[in-house]
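Batch manifest, entry 17 of 40.
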Amino acid sequence: MRAAPGSQRACSGCSATRDGMYIMRVLISGGGTGGHIYPALAVATQLRKLYQADILYLGSDDGLETQLVPAAGFRMKTVKAGKLQRYISVNTLKGIARVPLGLAQAVGIVRDFQPDVVFTSGGYVSVPAGLGAKLNNVPLLLHQQDVPPNLSNKLIAPSATRISIAFAASKRYFPEHKTLWLGNPIREEILAVRQIEVGAAKQALGFSADLPLLLITGGSQGARHLNQIVAGSLPELLKSCQVLQISGQKLYNETRSLADRILTDASVGEDLRQRYRLEPYMSDEMPLALQGSDLVICRSGASTLSELAVLEKPSLLVPLPPAIGSSPQEINAETFVREGAADVVRNDDLEPALLLTRVQQLIGAPERLQAMRTALKVFAKPDGTQEIAEAVVNMLPRWKVDRLEQEGINA
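Output type: structure tokens
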């Protein structure tokens, strides 16, 4: 087995048997939004594929993982995780009230499943999962996706056995002796789509291969302000490029109505209307949408940025603004902008005229787009999923690898 950088030779373990064979058990946790769930599923898939691991996913009972995890073919248990926010509201108080119950549930789930190791990819459900691991004396690999740690990871970092980070700039936040720079987990679908030509990807999505494609997404939850500004820019945007806009499921109807009204009021002809596609959410087609794009307008969540880096996709980043204090997404964006890997505009500064100007400046400057693609290589970690999976295995006792190697299970 190939060891992860900075660690000892890989070990595998198990706490169960199947037909007399040892089976490694791993509890995976991460939830709330796709940015936490997809990386966790990528690691789970790799562990099952390479090590025949028995996986149990621990999620929140009200997060998107309740849909995505069963669809990916993994068993799942849920807890009442409380969303930890930096401002006081009714929802904040409700979230705090859920924490003790969620922790008790997580402790019981970890005790019953008896995993060899716990892996968390972030989100508020990581707190009960991480503390559940600690209280059951199970090794914990905490994964830090954004450059700065969020509140959840700050709370459980002292309990982590190892910490993997997505970006080198995160090293300053954690103890050096237990921190590994491995990149973010990348979905296999993202890695595979690199084999498709950009023009072919556009055509598969119903667009022309010969015109620039602008992809706009506010993440799995959507972004109302971004949706509104894009809709207001459509009459002029469509003269320069094709537009694929992902509104978010809850914001789809209002975005559809607004876009239709603006296009009608501006008397946009059917030929230009055919350049516009609005979707509430894209899961299976999202890798194709990214690969077919010439420019992406999006938030600057860590998972999104890592996928853009692997696919070498130029972007105009609109970081999620902070509630109080600094925004992890703003720091992420600044990290990319410093290397020339992206452009950025503040959410509060965004308005139709500015959006149109920035898009036209970028799409009309192939040299600038190519410079971004080159700069993105600094952040690309296409092997991140495999290396994180190996880091999970490396946390287990050495004697267990001997048993699995005897049984012919190795990577």
